[in-house]
Amino acid sequence: MTQAEVIDGKAVATSVRDEIQKRTGALFDSTGAKPGLAVVLVGEDPASQVYVRNKEKTASECGFHSVKHDLPADTPEADVLTLVQQLNEDPAIHGILVQLPLPSHIDESKVLRLIKPEKDVDGFHPINVGLLTTGERDRAMVPCTPAGCLVLIKRALKGALSGKTAVVIGRSNIVGKPMASLLLQESCTVTIAHSRTRDLPSVVRGADIVIAAVGRPEMVRGDWIKPGATVIDVGINRIPAPERGEGKTRLVGDVAYEEAAKVAGAITPVPGGVGPMTIAMLMANTLTAARRQLHLSEEEPIF
Ligand SMILES: Nc1nc(=O)c2c([nH]1)NC[C@@H]1CN(c3ccc(C(=O)N[C@@H](CCC(=O)O)C(=O)O)cc3)C=[N+]21
């Protein structure tokens, strides 16, 4: 029985981070400027707090100026909008990330549309979505999770994406849709599948590249995978793990890993796959945003 190559997202993320740290040092030496990242968290969701802490930690490791705004869950929408306006006007801040999901009394799209597109390091502003879909990636901010997935796919396939069939499972604005745009740009033949897709297993069986981003634990089974396919698991699901003791949990992806690893050519683990790459790409976007706002030349893409 063959076993898939494990795509080590954590290791790739570390090398991306090292390169960003180097470039940030050079930027500071020549201009005295540091990329500035502001993260806004509304409410006390424990998972969000973990991610946000991780982003802050990585930002300081990269040598960035990093600020965090923790707001209570019942903060009025108007106050969040005012904070975003202030960050838009703050010359020390080059990237603004408003952690999603927001509490239900806040209109998410209203907040995201207020962020200046050049400071929108999440790539969620309609301007950036438009630039990505028209193929103007060099002027856009590309959403971090799909950008990180693309880096991992290119590594696994040694750049040979053109003409390959790709199935993206999930149609969110955060992952599914931008992932499909990026793969189309790389000349893949792209299918976007979702909860209404008929006979999903047979759709997935046709794919050279599978991106699972649905948020359903271990939904994609081993016998759905075409032998040798590249499997990218975006899901991060915390499920009960009674075998580890009462009340314990563990993280699983949207792919049944053990089964799929027996069939795939390459596969990302959870944790240690896409998650660390998301954070690394956020740092890359923040550095890019800072350079653009300082009217400096565009650097070579890191990967
Ligand atoms: N505006 C906004 N932008 C985001 O990019 C955004 C967001 N909101 N809301 C929540 C999701 C989720 N997300 C993750 C980032 C890193 C890991 C990560 O590093 N995960 C580790 C494990 C972490 C753990 O142990 O829980 C791993 O997969 O190895 C996970 C999830 C960013 N998100």
Low-confidence stretches: none
Number of strands: 11
What is the CATH topology classification name of the largest domain?
Rossmann fold
Helices and strands, in order, run as: EHEHEHEHHHEHEHEEEEHEH
Terminal CA distance:
33 Å
Just name the CATH architecture of the largest domain. Answer: 3-Layer(aba) Sandwich
| CATH class assignment of the largest domain | Alpha Beta
Write the layout of secondary structure elements.
Blueprint: E1 5-6, H1 9-31, E2 36-42, H2 46-61, E3 65-71, H3 77-89, E4 95-98, H4 108-114, H5 126-133, H6 144-156, E5 165-169, H7 176-185, E6 189-193, H8 200-205, E7 209-212, E8 230-233, E9 237-240, E10 249-252, H9 257-261, E11 266-267, H10 274-293
Parallel strand pairs: 1-11, 2-3, 2-4, 5-6, 5-7, 7-8, 8-11
Antiparallel strand pairs: 9-10
Describe the structure concisely.
With 303 residues, the protein is of the alpha/beta class. Helix content is 40%, strand content 16%. A six-stranded parallel beta sheet has the order 1-11-8-7-5-6. The protein has a three-stranded parallel beta sheet with strand order 3-2-4, sandwiched between helices. It has a two-stranded antiparallel sheet with strand order 9-10.
Outline the structure in words.
This is Bifunctional protein FolD. Catalyzes the oxidation of 5,10-methylenetetrahydrofolate to 5,10-methenyltetrahydrofolate and then the hydrolysis of 5,10-methenyltetrahydrofolate to 10-formyltetrahydrofolate. With 303 residues, the chain is of the alpha/beta class. It folds into two domains: 32-116, 3-Layer(aba) Sandwich (Rossmann fold); 144-275, NAD(P)-binding Rossmann-like Domain (Rossmann fold), CATH 3.40.50.720. Helix content is 40%, strand content 16%. It is built from ten helices and eleven strands. The chain has helices spanning 9-31, 46-61, 77-89, 108-114, 126-133, 144-156, 176-185, 200-205, 257-261, 274-293; strands spanning 5-6, 36-42, 65-71, 95-98, 165-169, 189-193, 209-212, 230-233, 237-240, 249-252, 266-267. The strands form three sheets. Strands 1-11-8-7-5-6 form a six-stranded parallel β-sheet. A three-stranded parallel β-sheet has the order 3-2-4, with helices on both faces. It has a two-stranded antiparallel ribbon with strand order 9-10. β9 and β10 form a beta hairpin. α2 (46-61) crosses α10 (274-293) and α6 packs across α7. The protein is globular. 43% of the residues are buried. The mean pLDDT is 97. The chain binds 5,10-Methenyltetrahydrofolate (GUE). 5,10-Methenyltetrahydrofolate binds at residues 50-51, 54, 97-100, 122, 144, 236, 251, 270-272, 275-276, 278-279.
